[in-house]
Amino acid sequence: MTRSKKFFLSIVVIVVLGIAIYSLFSYKNTLPPEMITLDYKNPQRDVEIKIPKEKVWFADMKKERDFAYPASEAHFSLNFLDPSEVKKRRNVIIKSVDKEKLFCLKELFKDKKIDFAYNKSENNLDIVVYLPQEREEKILQMLHYYGIAYQNN
């Protein structure tokens, strides 16, 4: 570095330090005096603890009503199928499905409005597909088209 660069750099450092010191000094002067002073109280050593001999507060609790916790209301409705309208269904089990196939099958079944359930055990995932009688052949062809092995039940 040349001598002029060193001189210029030292001037810049001195100016920055001067601005920092000035801003800290002006900030200290703007603070109210009560913010700076700390008042430490001496702890009282001989404090008398008053313990009532009669447990009045406990006796008053007997007079009060029991507390009633707020209850949430829930409405459930179960729509049972009329036995005369029950359609025969057949189950198809798809065994050992990986996560990608599961996602694709779920989307496909939702799109075609097909009822299904899946069971996940330790190492494998099985899907049970409930086939309506009128669409059974079409769904089995769809599974065969996608190369998905299934087991009739």
From TrEMBL:
Keywords: Membrane, Transmembrane, Transmembrane helix
TM stretches of this protein: 7-25
Keyword Membrane belongs to the record: yes
Top-rank lineage group of the source organism: Bacteria
Protein's name according to its UniProt entry: Periplasmic protein
